[in-house]
């Protein structure tokens, strides 16, 4: 798949901001910048990862993938492991509660060519936690050293982990887990700044993340509440973490990885025309990925609704979009919406930089 080139205008904007980035090395793993795409369930498939890499993400991580689904040979699960040849800095994230099953699935996953394998130790969703996976792994740290050791033994690529600060406010054990990970050869640790019991409520504890970033024996990637280019840039300037991981922010602003390098990240740098171009690019990738038109319809409508958040007239547009039953109609309504924004010269989004986007989850 060779997508159509972006317009010269958009490509110039992208290139100018990409030139401001600096590559980093976290343990043995190279990234194009310290701003990475967080793993998000049902979002971080290869079309979305490819798009975010093109739009400045220094690296990406797959959505969480079940070790049991891999080991059972489930077709849908195995398809989730696929890495597109144009993806550069990609890790595959696995979840599960059984060390042996995780080690076996890791052997399969690395055959798909990731730069690293990541253990999900942060997912707070009940159906994952109730089986002992995700953030449930934070509860008994005595089990972690043999868990990591078995995973490490099964791999030829680096091993990483993504955790939360702890299970609850009375068991903040991220520093302990990091030291265990260091002893077992883990390359870096990404930390979401909330406990499992917080889910995505309240605020990420950046005071704790900064303290860990200053004292950790492993590279730390800070994650949580980086919803806008403005807040991301402020954090980049002061953080003790070696990198930052962005989740929800790029669902409202797909240019967040680039706009975080603007002199004034609140300015309207990318136009509605630019948004429409990248929607068309995502559509190209999705056509290559999805086999059913219904999947295309649902995925495109979902993504477009996220991307338009904050633009004028969005409430009516959303209503029209969800009434549309055919993919062609969704694309036509969307094209007209972005054209009208361009004609009326309404480029800027109205975004409250203090309020989260999609408060129910995803980074």
What can you see in these coordinates?
With about 375 residues, the chain is an alpha/beta fold. The protein has two domains: about 240 residues, TIM Barrel; about 55 residues. Strands 3, 4, 5, 6, 7, 8, 9, 10 and 11 form a nine-stranded parallel sheet that branches. A two-stranded antiparallel ribbon has the order 1-2. Strand 1 and strand 2 form a beta hairpin. Helix 13 packs antiparallel against helix 16. The radius of gyration is 20 Å and the shape is globular.
Provide a quick synopsis of the model.
By secondary structure, this protein is an alpha/beta fold.
Give the CATH level 1 class of the largest domain.
Answer: Alpha Beta
Proportion of helical residues: 40-55%
Order of helices and strands: HEEEHEEHHEHEHHEHEHEHEHHHHHH
User: Which structural category do the helix and sheet elements fall into?
Assistant: alpha/beta
Overall geometric form: globular
How many whole angstroms does the radius of gyration measure?
20 Å
Q: What is the CATH architecture term of the largest domain?
A: Alpha-Beta Barrel
**CATH topology type of the largest domain:** TIM Barrel
């Amino acid at each position: 798949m060779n997508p159509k080139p972006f317009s010269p205008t958009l490509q110039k904007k992208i290139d100018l901001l990409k030139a401001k980035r600096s590559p980093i090395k976290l343990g043995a793993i190279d990234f194009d910048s310290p701003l990475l795409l967080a793993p998000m369930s049902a979002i971080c498939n290869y079309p979305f990862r490819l798009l975010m890499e093109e739009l400045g993400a220094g690296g990406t991580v797959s959505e969480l993938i079940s070790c049991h689904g891999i080991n059972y040979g489930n077709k849908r699960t195995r398809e989730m492991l696929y890495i597109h040849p144009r993806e550069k800095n990609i890790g595959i994230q696995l979840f599960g509660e059984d060390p042996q099953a995780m080690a076996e699935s890791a052997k399969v996953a690395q055959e798909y060519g990731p730069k690293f394998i990541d253990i999900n130790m942060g997912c707070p969703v009940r159906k994952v936690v109730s089986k002992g996976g995700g953030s449930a792994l934070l509860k008994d740290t005595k089990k972690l050293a043999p868990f990591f050791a078995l995973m490490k033994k099964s791999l030829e690529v680096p091993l990483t982990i993504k955790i939360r600060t702890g299970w609850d406010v009375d068991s903040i054990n991220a520093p302990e887990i990091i030291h265990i990970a260091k002893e077992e050869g883990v390359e870096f640790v990404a930390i979401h700044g909330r406990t499992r019991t917080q889910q995505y409520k309240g605020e990420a504890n950046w005071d704790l993340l900064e303290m860990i970033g200053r004292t950790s024996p492993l590279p730390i990637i800070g994650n949580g509440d980086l919803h806008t280019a403005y807040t991301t840039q402020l954090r980049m300037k002061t953080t003790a973490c070696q990198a930052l991981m962005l989740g929800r922010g790029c669902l409202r602003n797909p240019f967040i990885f680039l706009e975080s390098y603007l002199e004034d990240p609140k300015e309207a740098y990318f136009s509605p025309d630019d948004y429409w171009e990248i929607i068309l690019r995502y559509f190209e990738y999705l056509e290559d990925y999805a086999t059913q038109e219904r999947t295309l319809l649902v995925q495109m409508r979902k993504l477009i609704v996220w991307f338009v958040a904050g633009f004028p007239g969005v409430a009516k547009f959303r209503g029209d979009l969800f009434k549309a039953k055919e993919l062609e109609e969704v694309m036509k309504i969307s094209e007209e919406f972005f054209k009208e924004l361009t004609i009326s010269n309404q480029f800027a989004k109205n975004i409250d930089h203090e309020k989260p986007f999609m408060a129910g989850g995803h980074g």
